[in-house]
Amino acid sequence: MCISKEGEKFILDLNMYLMIGGKNEKEVKEFIEEAEQHLILGEKEGKSVKDIFGDSPEEYAKSVEAELPYDKKGVLNLGFIFIIGLVPWLFLNQLNYGSYKTSVLEAIGIPLILVVYLAFILLFAKKFAFKNIKFNISIYIFSVLEMVALVAVGLVGQNMEQIELFSEPTVRIIIFVLILVSIIIAITLKTTAPIFPFLINMPKILYYFFGLNLGNLDTVALLIGVVLMFIALKIETNSSPKVN
């Protein structure tokens, strides 16, 4: 028997809440499986999610969170993976077909904005885990603020003194290493997300590895990269296991 839409949403929200809380992935998975079976049996008897888990999903999630141990090692591993995954975005976005140049403001400001953005996303995801409308509104508002901040830093930074950090041959080596590391992470986590920055910045990669300067086709190639990214994301989402 399949779980109702209400039940499926509750299970997914509960799983997200516990994972963001730094709980052990294996223990969370085992608990979620038990909760699913409990939900299936309850719904067979005509009970709703509230009948089975109580009137407040948040209070139930908090009580479960208190029982499960904090997985410090797992959190550190996720933090390390995030940092490794963030580097390609930061590095490739700063490239401008040649040596790697940046201003002090961009070198400090852009990573800081992205880290703060992720921190708030995680905060919102947990705070509004069972309140989709509030979560979506919060994400939308903060995403707009993030984009404004990034554009502001970019506009101001490009008028500041540019410091050359890496020569073009060194840039080529760094990109190659980043691609290898991202492929390893993608295989390990079974996700296409680590390859997204390379798809978005495909024109730059073609330039550094094959000497292709796309010129007027640069924007077209960028759009193709964006389309490929969304196709990969769509395929991955559709192939993800469903809650039964």
UniProtKB/TrEMBL annotation:
Lineage: superkingdom: Bacteria
Alphabetized UniProt keyword annotations: Membrane, Transmembrane, Transmembrane helix
Claim: Transmembrane helix is one of the keywords in the record: yes
Residue ranges crossing the lipid bilayer per the database entry: 75-92, 104-125, 137-158, 170-193, 205-233
Keyword Transmembrane helix: yes
Name this polypeptide is given: DUF1129 domain-containing protein
Source organism (scientific name): Romboutsia sedimentorum
